[in-house]
Amino acid sequence: MSIEYYNTIMQNAFVLFLLLLWKHLMFDFVFQTEYMLRSKGKYFHVGGINHSLLHIVATYLILIIWNVSSASNYILYGGIHLKGVPISFSSIVLLVLCEFIVHYHTDYFKAKLSIRNNLTPIGDNRKIFWALTGFDQWVHNTTYLCIVWYVIS
Length: 153
Known about the structure:
By secondary structure, this protein is mostly helical.
């Protein structure tokens, strides 16, 4: 395999990861409602479920667009060439289901621990709160890296 091939794979992985990170920023911080935020500590509450569903719908759309662009070697977004091997529809469904399970449970356990230990961003336990928040974000970002790894493999 040539160096150009590996460069293309790395560029594709980078673009896909950035798209997933952008999606995460939008749905974890910009579009998350107070209702969703307050209900995450209640297992299978509709607010927490809706929050995770928004994430996977966005991931699904990103992967479908990615798949179409890979299948047709389409050029999107100012010349970024998204070529590669398309993944199956069942693989996309499996990836978003896994993301739902991981995202929902990560948020649930973070909220549950925060409530149980009275963790707040500015309270006496703020260092624990921020460490837990950092771990929560690390899990989400690792999920996106796993999705990228699966797609480019």
